[in-house]
Specification:
heterotrimer; A mainly alpha (309); B mainly alpha (249); C alpha+beta (191); A: 309 residues; mainly alpha; Ferritin; two-stranded antiparallel sheet; 66% helix; 2% strand; B: 249 residues; 9 helices; 0% strand; globular
Chain lengths: 309, 249, 191
């Protein structure tokens, strides 16, 4: 088969809803897009452990402590599944981690914001994991088998992440004056970063069309963002919280809640590394990697001495 | 009287597991490799779960709810051994501390499942499968770090030299605990210590680590704490104490 | 080994005694014993698991159906070359979303390619699109005697299940109360 014929056969498989598996022929651009997307997703999970991990030692009840630790552990596990999916495409985990620590790889910018109060933990669960679930539910149908399967496993585990956050925030909206204020303050700070999780507007999103053509995405950034806004506005209103968007209004003809404009200057600044916590997040990961080098080397030496590994 | 004495001993068990779990949770996101972020979090979740079981029994005996006991009690009233309040240190320190504690729990729980107190026996039976897994995990690590490379061996030696005397406090009984031993509720601490020393001694030797000479525990009384405990509790209790006890979180 | 992340081990998870072992993903580990523990911590946080196997990625000989159809991957072994047991796995069916590499059985062979050749003659090949073979001696299997400490603890951590958080009835109640409000309340957020 010529390259063109192979590409046509590949696209026909995708059109038929078939999964592309490791070892199958695939265009190099498909492979590279997926490596980029999946590794970014994996990095996001790992970095995501940090803003919440900072509050593990301050969880106010034993239940909250267990729940938050289980959530943070899951995030590590999700990163693990995703690195595996990327590894099936020919990149190693060491290469991906090196790229992250060298500042060459991206991860979801939402984690470059600080967690300032305990209520941030609940709000992250409701908003940020809520947004992630939406995205992941779509990706569970993606054309690349290992990524789709990782998404299915992640979606099943992630539901509790959102629900534990909802449970917290609902309680705080019915709690003491300080708790109510903490919940509203958390929403004020996390609303816009959550909307930014869906990426740039479709018109300015360079990869979207190809990703949709190859079955990696099935909805555009703006479509996903609109679904999210509709769901979240309805939910937050139900518990008496105010969305920090003075331009937000309900358009009866479309049935959509229409947002004000995202601050795209802030979006691009944070994506490019100038957010409140970018340096801190990467520094923590670099330290973990460096401090752990003697450990990894010791175990590698132990295995090598016994003819294993 | 027996109930109060039992309640104090149960509280001591609870405090040990709680604080060890708390220290272990500090590694989440900072472990040497991703698989250990996940594995060490598992150890922490198990220890916190074990603490919960003991605090629930403590509630049955005293009427005090677990969250009140955990978040609204000062350092002076905590009954943990100093071993578990120490900062996490490096990976060698945390892994070796967990190993020494896991070996102790395995020896302890093997006795507690036969306690004449049904609730104690029940709780021990629930914890035992998890502690068996812990010991397997941490024993593997101790061996690999002890034997693996010069630096890991050096760090493990330093960790063991620091930890050993703290670990010996595991076997210093609470005052008046003899009554509980006589009633077959708790095992004889001397017997526990002998079993523990045999097991860890053999494994540490096999891991090329020399048992320190210290015979006396760092502290005799569980009411005696280092400055680390107050620091730990200040952080741990910060959010809970921002409202009165009884506010739901 | 120069890789800062150790070697990769494929993980096979068997949910129940009656189900086949299925490739759940992989873990990085420095040796097989650690890989088995890592597999338990990564893949068995929630029920159910009955058995776990780990095998170094480097010990797996994998071919897609397309690759198998070409004749360039097999040479017959010497007649007196010693045989050993190989475990055989494959992935069947399209375009199902949840398709895994699953254990199908074992064969005796002198080398990986030989094992695959024997597997093709032994097991049904219809709709199979990936084959894996690995020598049994490189596969570390969890012991049944360890099941209580390896797998049962996953059941006790109910807070990992979304059913532990009954938020849906609360939200429904709140929203139906809201629904009783005038529709004009929905028009703007900040009044």
């Amino acid at each position: 088969m010529t390259e063109t014929e192979q590409l046509q056969a590949f696209e026909a498989r995708i059109a038929r809803g078939e999964k592309i598996e490791p070892g199958d022929w695939m265009p190099d651009a498909y492979r590279q897009q997926l490596i980029r997307m999946i590794s970014q997703h994996a990095h996001s999970e790992i970095i995501g452990m940090l803003p919440e991990g900072a509050w593990l030692q301050r969880a106010p009840t034993l239940r909250r402590k267990l729940v938050l630790l289980a959530k943070v552990q899951d995030e590590g596990g999700h990163g693990q599944y995703l690195y595996h999916a990327a590894e099936t495409l020919g990149v190693t985990r060491a290469e991906m981690i090196d790229a992250l620590l060298a500042g060459r790889a991206k991860y979801s910018s939402v984690f470059n914001y600080p967690t300032l109060t305990w209520a941030d933990i609940g709000m992250i669960g409701w908003l940020v994991d809520g947004a992630a679930i939406q995205n992941q539910t779509m990706l569970a149908h993606c054309s690349y088998g290992p990524y789709a399967r990782a998404m299915v496993r992640i979606c099943a585990e992630e539901t509790f992440h959102k629900k534990q956050g909802m449970e917290q925030i609902i309680r705080y909206t019915r709690g003491t004056p300080r708790q109510k204020q903490m919940a509203q303050d958390a929403l004020n700070r996390w609303w816009w970063p959550s909307l930014m999780m869906f990426g740039p507007h479709d018109a300015t999103s360079p990869n979207s069309a190809q990703l949709i053509r190859w079955g990696i995405k099935t909805k555009t950034n703006d479509e996903l963002r609109q679904d999210f806004v509709n769901k979240m506005v309805s939910d937050f209103h139900a518990v008496g919280l105010t969305i920090p968007d003075p331009d937000l209004y309900y358009d009866a003809s479309s049935g959509n809640w229409i947002s004000g404009e995202i601050n795209w200057d802030e979006f691009w600044r944070v994506v490019k590394g100038d957010g409140p916590c970018n340096a801190e997040r990467l520094q923590a990961r670099r330290e973990a990697q460096e401090n752990g080098a003697w450990v990894r080397e010791a175990l590698a030496a132990y295995a090598a001495a016994r003819g294993e590994g | 009287m027996n109930d109060t004495l039992l309640a104090r001993n149960v509280l001591a068990l609870a405090d040990d597991s709680l604080l060890l779990g708390h220290r272990n949770s500090e590694w989440a996101g900072h472990a040497p490799i991703l698989e250990e972020d996940i594995a060490f979090a598992n150890l922490a979740l198990d220890e916190l779960g074990h603490a919960q079981l003991w605090y629930e029994l403590h509630q049955e005996l005293t009427g005090r709810e677990p969250d009140e006991t955990i978040f609204f009690r000062d350092a002076a009233d905590y009954l943990n051994i100093q071993l578990v309040e120490l900062p996490k240190g490096d990976w060698a320190f945390s892994m070796l501390r967990q190993y020494l504690f896991d070996a102790y729990e395995n020896v302890l729980l093997a006795h507690l499942v036969n306690s004449s107190n049904a609730r104690v026996a029940e709780i021990a039976a629930k914890q035992r499968p998890e502690e068996m897994y812990h010991l397997r995990h941490t024993a593997h690590w101790v061996k690999r770090l002890g034997l693996g490379a010069a630096e890991s061996h050096r760090r493990m030696t330093a960790a063991l030299n620091e930890l050993w005397a703290y670990a010996l406090q595991l076997f210093a009984p609470l005052e008046n605990a003899q009554a509980l031993t006589d009633a077959n509720i708790l095992p004889n601490p001397r017997a526990l210590q002998t079993e523990w020393e045999n097991q860890v001694g053999a494994h540490l030797t096999a891991s090329a680590l020399a048992i320190p000479a210290a015979r006396a525990p760092r502290a005799k009384s569980r009411s005696e704490h280092t400055a680390h405990l107050r620091e730990l509790l200040t952080e741990m209790q910060e959010v809970a104490r921002s409202e009165v006890y009884g506010v739901e979180w | 080994m120069n890789d800062s992340q150790w070697a990769r081990y494929e993980v096979f998870e068997q949910e129940r005694a009656s189900a086949p072992h299925r490739n759940a993903g992989s873990v990085h580990a420095s040796d097989a014993e650690m890989a088995l523990g890592n597999a338990r911590d990564v893949f068995v946080r929630r029920p159910n698991c009955f058995s776990l196997w780990v095998v170094p990625e480097a010990a797996v000989f994998a071919k897609t159906a397309q690759e198998v159809a070409r004749d360039d991957w097999y040479t017959a072994p010497a007649a007196d070359a010693p045989r050993e047991t190989y475990l055989v796995f494959n992935k069947k069916g399209q375009p199902a979303r949840e398709t895994f590499v699953e254990y199908v059985g074992e064969v005796k062979a002198a080398a990986p390619a030989h094992a695959l050749r024997v597997a093709l003659e032994t097991f049904p090949t219809q709709d199979v699109f990936v084959w894996w073979v690995a020598p049994e001696r490189r596969v570390l299997k969890s012991e049944q005697a360890d099941a209580a400490s390896m797998f049962a603890p996953a059941r006790t951590k109910k807070y990992r299940m979304h059913t532990f958080y009954p938020v849906e009835p609360i939200m429904r109640e709140l929203k139906s109360a809201q629904g009783m409000l005038d529709n004009s309340e929905k028009m703007t957020d900040n009044d």
